[in-house]
Specification:
Elements: E1 3-13, H1 16-25, E2 36-42, E3 45-51, H2 59-66, E4 71-78, E5 94-98, E6 101-109, H3 132-144, H4 157-171, E7 177-182, E8 187-191, E9 194-195, E10 202-203, E11 208-214, E12 233-239, E13 249-250, E14 255-260, E15 263-265, H5 272-278, H6 280-288
Antiparallel strand pairs: 1-4, 1-12, 2-3, 2-4, 5-6, 6-7, 7-8, 8-14, 9-10, 11-12, 11-13, 14-15
Helix pairs in contact: 1-2, 3-4
Length: 289
Amino acid sequence: MCELLGMSSNIPATLSLSLMKLAEHGGLSGPHKDGWGVAYYEGPDVRVIKEAEAAAESEWVRFLKQHDIRSPIVIAHIRRATMGARSYRNTQPFARELAGRMHLFAHNGWLPGINESPAFKPTRFRPVGETDSETAFCALLGRMSAVWNRPDEIPSPEERLTVVSTFAAELRMLGPANFLYSDGDILFAHGHRRKQGTSSKIEPPGLVYLQRRCGQGRRGFVASGLSIEGADQVITLVASVSLTDEPWQPLDEGEVIAISKGQVTPHRPAARNEVENGSSALRDWNRER
């Protein structure tokens, strides 16, 4: 399975050491050597750097470590290919424009049958590659377009969280569905199930997170590569596995959290009727299989 890393901060921060720690899993201490990528928000746009090579051997990863790239939201991914060729087009994070701003998505898991499911049939957004992850992203953006429909107006966090929570509940019906998604304003994280360590069992937690607050003049997340001085700072990291010796908080199975400027909003699970109303096509398809 792939591995994910996300960051949200109230002020632009660097992610160099956490990224290097994650990169070690990409072909050095772990088997995830089929590609890697990282995306940094710069206002409504993003800087995306990725390649279909092992992260542990990448000159680009070393380049990022040597440069002070700062961002309030970062999403990173290392890949172990389960669907689609080892190629740039299948490397995450994926990026698309919606409502005049860039949206990002990265997924860890396996979603067999997603391409045949009418509930996830591409509409306005279509995948460039062959992965189940990109198909899921295109389906999510199709649903998000219903709330991102007012020029120069950001939908309420509640509207967006409802869409993400309902989508995540439907996606879990196909298989392991851990993902990070951001619209440049909020970082959404959905934890489901994944392989734990060397075990072959797929079980929760699918994601863990760590939040730290630092007062004026103190350095934050030094062990994780985030070191800003001279300002009050709130940072939250979300990852597939703990990247430091600190106590990371596991997400409950099926939990969705919204992180804005480092602050974690209590998740709102999709109501039963929302899932049922939004997934009738998926349930019909499953019955036919």
